[in-house]
Amino acid sequence: RSGGNRMKIFNEQMRVSVQERIAGEKLLREALAGNREETLPVWFQPIVRAENGEIVGAEALIRMRAADGSIIGPNQFIPAAEETGMIVPLGEHVLIMALRHLVEWRHDIGYISVNVSPRQLAEPDFVPLLADLLAANPEIDPKRLVLEITETALLGSSLDVRERLETIKSLGVRIALDDFGTGYSSLTWLQNIPADVVKLDRSFVAGLSSDARKSSIIQAVLWLAKSLGMSAVAEGVEEEADQHALHAAGCELLQGYLFGKPMPPVEFGERVQRSSMA
Ligand code: C2E
Ligand code: CA
Ligand code: CA
Q1: Which ligand is nearest to the CA of 255?
Q2: Whole-structure pTM value
Q3: Predicted complex ipTM
């Protein structure tokens, strides 16, 4: 009925996910209206040096705390947040929390990475917000904030992404291309997007030490990143063998369960304290 030669399939699984989405939307609305630090905790996952596992940074990852205290992961509510526009206040909250913790841990870690959705990026108020937050935290060098963007999510957006990213970079903030390798035009993006960092997607990182094809792809991408002057972070490192293979291939920064899952800030603070004393 949607015309043309399109056919849409509506199955049971989708019906459940639509219901989930509606429920998620309601929860999110309530969470944003509540005490955000309680209802929308921002957790941190270590980013480490490949050679020795030393923590050099962290990725901020949003969570939602339901009324019964249970923790809900972002995949359950980020899509609804994007659709409804609630991603804008949500993203602002994440940035505020990330910068607050960067101030707290400024002597312990180098940087914090924050995910930014295309909808946020398209918002005319985004750059002024960023500039205000940086001005409010003068002890933080802006290059210690990294914004992670996804290439697939930006496809088809009418916004002049490149221009917006250049403006953000002029503030000194760094840009990371997230989930690299999962999109449809990765090389086009590498050519057009002024990114400082590429984050190699978990799907071709996990198990690379026992997969010659994965390993070749990783090596080529690392070479490409390096020749473009970008640094690379491999995501989803779960095994020591992969850590060693990535280090040997010249990937300097790693992230994954092997080094730590996303954790509440108190726990992360304790982790970096321990690791800097060691
Ligand atoms: P992402 O940006 O690719 O974040 C990495 C995800 O991989 C996180 O899931 C993390 O917990 C998971 N991960 C890290 N290491 C490993 C590993 O070794 N093995 C496995 N299996 N998984 C690993 P999480 O926290 O559930 O986040 C999912 C996605 O939600 C993120 O994917 C990101 O796209 C989105 N997201 C999270 N926080 C935010 C936010 O504040 N704003 C926006 N716009 N999106 C967010
Ligand atoms: Ca990310
Ligand atoms: Ca990612």
Answers
A1: 1
A2: 0.92
A3: 0.97
